[in-house]
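Take a minute with the sequence and fold tokens given here and flag any structure token that looks odd. Thanks in advance.
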Amino acid sequence: MIIPEQKQTRLNKFISETGFCSRREADKLIEQGRVLLNGIIPEMGTKVNDGDVVHIDGKPLKAKKEPIYIAFNKPIGITCTTERDIKGNIIDYISHKERIFPIGRLDKQSEGLIFLTSDGDIVNKILRAGNNHEKEYIVTVDRIITRDFIKKMANGVAILNTVTQKCKVYQENKQRFRIILTQGLNRQIRRMCEVLGYHVLKLKRIRIMNVNVAGLSAGKWRYLSTEEITNINQMISTSVKTEEASVLNQSE
């Protein structure tokens, strides 16, 4: 008789797939000794077999739930953090009954589309700049835009000890432009503008990948449709695995 081989999953992935937290957060829990595997404190990198029992803070890890995917039109003043002690945090604002966390960030003074999810495995794949996932913004600046400004923004600007990747930039009116990024450096658009002598007055993200903010009022959220989720999964199917990924801070 052939005994089927047991399926083994890395502990951090096993935890994230239940929707409890992201892999990175799971690693922290394991390091802190808050995770038990079959009653024993496991080492980092330990694998879980079918039938193993995992506890976090003394409570059994519940079975995997259907993942949640949310599109939220973040208003100005909301902070994209899971730290509940910070006033105006995005988690308390949405107040979802399940544990969710944002994918990427938007500055407190920025507005527009951001995803939130309970699916810890999808986060880094979307954040990876190398996967060319587009994010589109409408930006208003404090003075008249020149052709030279548009050209320099599109070709790359020196910030944070690097030069930003080439991107698409279109002038909308005298002081407003549209920019499509596949990169996610910290406060990237604001920093790019500042280097060129401009100050951002208003910044709104209107699209992430195949999802746009149309029809979603500021401060409102909705679940992503089955079609949207399917398309996103197709787009990230070639993404580097989470464990191999380097997370970029997508704060604009």
Summary: Residues 66-252 form a domain with the Pseudouridine synthase fold (CATH 3.30.2350.10).
